[in-house]
Amino acid sequence: MSAETLFHIYSYEVKRPSRPLDEPFNRGCREPDVLAPRENAVIVMLARNRERQGAVQSIKSLEKQFNRWFHYPIIFLNDDPWEEAFINDLTKIASGNVTFEQIPKGMWGFPEWMDHDLARQGMKRQEDEGVLYGGLESYHHMCRFNSGLFFDVPALKPYKWYWRVEPDVEFICAIPYDPFVAMAKHKKKYGFTVALLELRQTVPTLFRKVTDYKAKHKIPSTNLWNTMINPSWLPQPFRPLMSRLGNRDASGDAWNLCHFWSNFEIADMDWFRTQEYRDFFEYLDLDGGFYFERWGDAPIHSLAAAMFLKAEELHHFEDIGYVHHPFQSCPKNKLGAQMAFSKTFGAGYWDKEVSSGIGCRCACNPRPTLPDLVCIDRIKQVFR
Question: Which GO cellular component does the record give, naming just one (predicted)?
């Protein structure tokens, strides 16, 4: 391997910071401060009427582990009118104010400029090629909506912070503090629990489009951006030939496919509302990849965060236990900090306590999937 190639690879090395940039907000159990001021925040769920039982499961779990102490409002979004059964069931179990909103027609569907027939042909091709959800028109609409439109829904406009919750998820640790307050205090803008490898078939040209935009606007690479890159091992002048293989930039360097799984997000909507982010989304939207391919909101948010945010503006919620099958985040319980006789949490005995643990009454098997380990370990290098 030539010296030039070694230097090129070294230029993408993720350098560990001189001081920790992201520590857990909480370690073990503590009494929730129910009288503390709240942030301007909302819990958001995008769901369908047929997902009523899954929505009930998720909100019951969130109430048990968090919201029964903090009572944040919840907004449910649907592209169809809500059925009374959904409204009644979810209103009964939520401790905060509950709102059921229908997404405005202009936010859900094909962009105005797009040829619908061509888009549907593209989706049919994806279905034939076995792309996961590639043939589901509603799924493409959902990815586009979550990538660049949700934060402009009128019901969400008054809020700064949001916590995205999906149907059919489970929170498996007590959350005895306010994550919104912690995010604001530590000047964070985007928080995640799980990081995964994206399915290559869904995004064959996305990374090239993103890096072309990055180059055109002269956006400098950062240590955070480098966590997303696998540099090419070929020497110049052959390196750019690798760009033909897909998921590579014009210089032949590859996206490692790691991304933050957006099924769980706690983030600052004002960041998404910046002109910088809006311009980026509009560029991608005009390309058509939300339909001609199956670009998901998770890689869009992740690559945007890596491109526009500082490492210290991200937060890994490693203390929050979260399950959305088949993936999970499962913290170990902090030794001696489970408050076994607490009136707040109820009496009980909790195993899997270790001195390095940070969880509060987590009930799960701490065995993350291999893609999660690979991507989390890669991304955490930038923090400490």
Answer: Golgi apparatus
- Nearest partner of 64 among 164, 169, 193, 156, judged by Cα: 169
Dist. CA 297–CA 352, nearest whole Å: 35
Which of 316, 43, 18 minimizes the C-alpha distance to 161? 43
Residue linked to tokens 């945007």: 304
Sequence-separated (6 or more) residues with CB below 8 Å from residue 61: 169, 170, 171
pLDDT score, position 107 = 97
Residue 149: how many CB atoms within 10 A of its CB?
19
Residue with tokens 């088949």: 326
Contacts 24+ apart (CB under 8 A), 238-245: 239/8, 243/208
Mean pLDDT per 10-residue interval, the chain, length 384 residues = 84 92 96 97 98 98 98 98 98 97 96 97 98 98 98 98 98 97 98 95 97 98 96 86 86 95 97 98 98 98 98 97 91 93 82 90 73 80 91
pLDDT at 118 (0 to 100):
97
Q: 0.90 exceeded by the pTM? A: yes
β strands within 330-379, DSSP E: 333-334, 353-354
Integer Cα distance of 305 and 272 in angstroms: 10
- What's the rounded Cα separation, in Å, for the pair 146 and 108? 10
Q: Which amino acid is at 193?
A: T
Q: What is the pLDDT of residue 7?
A: 85
Candidates 364, 237, 169, 212; CA nearest to 303 is 212
Closest CA to 104 of 173, 45, 156: 156
Task: Give 215's contacts (C-beta < 8 A, 6+ positions apart).
Answer: 249, 250
For residue 47, the enclosing domain spans 3-380
What CATH number is given to the structural domain containing 25?
3.90.550.10
265 among known catalytic residues: yes
The partner residues of 334 in beta bridges, in order of sequence, read 354
Active-site option among 39, 63, 198, 265:
265
Instruction: Return the pLDDT at 367.
Output: 65
Burial of 58 (0-12, 13-18, 19+ CB in 10 A): buried
Q: In terms of DSSP H, where are the helices of 172-327? A: 179-185, 206-216, 223-226, 269-272, 275-287, 289-292, 297-308
